[in-house]
Amino acid sequence: MKKLLLGLVLLFACTGMFFVQPQVNAHAKAVEPRILIAYFSLSGNTRLIAQDIQGMIGGDLFEIKAERAYGPDFDSAVEQAREELRINARPKLTAKVENMRDYDVIFVGFPNWVGTMPMAVFSFLEQYDFSGKTLIPFCTHGTSGVSDTITDFKKLNPQATILEYIDFFRNDVGDAEIPLQNWLKKLGFLK
Fold this sequence. Notes:
Elements (H helix, E strand, L loop, with lengths): L1 H14 L19 E5 L5 H13 L2 E4 L10 H13 L18 E7 L7 H8 L7 E8 L7 H8 L4 E2 L3 E4 L7 H11 L4
Parallel strand pairs: 1-2, 1-3, 3-4, 4-5, 4-6
Helix pairs in contact: 2-6
């Protein structure tokens, strides 16, 4: 009988049918994701949304800024944006996120410029490997909505998990608090 019981125990152990309950620490705290909020802003609208997000959920802010300034006025900034898009430019940026590998979640904010993201945002997105990271776009715009911004954003980041975006018409940026809260709740960042 002892040999039979020993044989059954060995059989279960060898076939993986012997289950051990894992020990759960009731006091273990869930690890919070490290959050970066990167944004490009010329007029300040996208910066305000980025700051609101940071105020609601924390995280680090990073401004995406081209070495060659846009402007000095709106019309010349638009002309420069059109020319960069026409030649598919990748403007050099003033700074780099040195510890990108440390972030789990990256919010990326940008205005819609000439139907897509500013080319400086393309530069930013192409200089990092976002494999295994969660990216969350947010967009500000005039009357043209998001146009191709989100489609282009997704094309640049096929190895990342991309969550639902939010966008704001430029005149609604000042009243963004409630929509941002609802969006962040839906994404699971606010309780």
